[in-house]
Design goal:
The chain has five helices and seven strands. The chain is an alpha/beta fold and about 180 residues long. The strands form two sheets. A five-stranded parallel beta sheet has the order 1-7-4-2-3. Strands 5-6 form a two-stranded antiparallel ribbon.
């Protein structure tokens, strides 16, 4: 009998978009530096994030923190010794991968979906203070069916990151900072 021993905690009511953590010049924003300080309190933890976020935040991480980006996590066992993990932002999935998945699962006509490029959608997060609303610009697929498949692929990448701690044998905690 195998039991998963991972406690996954998602932090909500805050925007965790890539744009909120990476400045236009590729450096970490003030918010990203604050996140890095928090992560540094958990010696021997790991961070999984999109490549740009990892590159921006890594200089602010302590020596005992392991960092990786979503496209390079499969088969990685280095995180298995970490008791705590942090999964930052949603992974970016190439639009063509979304279209390929949709076609593999029943879409019979490639032309039924227009060009699978992402559009930007403004999402609002209401805070405890009703006067304060934080906004985030998120990439979404232009077609609702493709958006469903994009969300499936994003969830799979995040589960891959969480699974790196090998929670079947060890009690672990993973904090998810994602929209």
């Amino acid at each position: 009998n195998i039991e998963n021993k991972v406690s996954a905690i998602q932090l909500i009511r805050k925007s965790w978009s890539k744009a909120s953590l990476v400045a236009e010049d590729g450096t970490a924003t003030t918010k990203a530096v604050e996140v890095a300080r928090t992560i540094n309190r958990y010696h021997g933890s790991f961070v999984a994030a999109p490549k740009a976020v990892r590159e921006a935040i890594e200089p602010h991480l302590g020596e005992t923190i392991l960092a990786g980006h979503y496209a390079k996590l499969r088969g990685l066992n280095a995180f298995s010794a970490c008791k705590t993990g942090f999964v930052l932002c949603d992974p970016m999935v190439p639009p063509i991968a979304v279209l390929d998945l949709a076609l593999a699962y029943g879409a019979d006509d490639r032309d039924a979906y227009y060009l699978p490029e992402y559009i930007e959608e403004v999402r609002r997060f209401r805070m405890r203070d009703p006067e304060h609303v934080e906004t985030s610009i998120s990439p979404v697929a232009a077609h609702p069916v493709l958006e469903t498949y994009r969300e499936i692929l994003v969830d799979d990448e995040m589960l891959q990151a969480i699974g790196r701690v090998r929670g079947f044998w060890n009690e672990r905690t993973v904090y998810i900072l994602s929209n």
